[in-house]
Rod shape-determining protein MreD (Winogradskyella arenosi), 168 residues
Amino acid sequence: MTNVTGLNIVRFVLLLLIQVVICNHINFLGYINPYIYIIFIFLFPIREERLLLLFVSFLLGLMVDLFSDSGGVHAAAAVFLAYARPILLKNSFGMLYEHQSIKFNSTELGSLISYVTLGTILHHFVLFSLEIFNISNIILILKKTLFSSIFTIILSVLLIILFSRNRK
């Protein structure tokens, strides 16, 4: 087992535990719920097999669903985010992604924030659309997406900056 694999396993377990033990119990004003487990999908190594990312994202979402009793919405949203990840990376990092040379601990802060913001909004929109599953409640879906996304983006960027070693 390589160092990167071990780091990913530790990250998977820690983010799952933090999500289940702490974040699932935060429900501020009925709209704000942080979903920081998606940091794992954001930080998954670029050079790894894409099918592996889809499978591990499904497992992560499924584990969150099992602990949250949410019927598969997290698994679906996590797989959607993992599937859309190459487009988000290309949008946010441009040529760095083309050359497969992105190192999240040394990228520009603006690119990192744009990547996390786009991914979080997509994930949350899919999550809340599947959770509510009624087009007549589109305002509720958008409210939950907006407010939870803001809180999740702030927490995610802070955690990524806090735990990266070589930040510029």
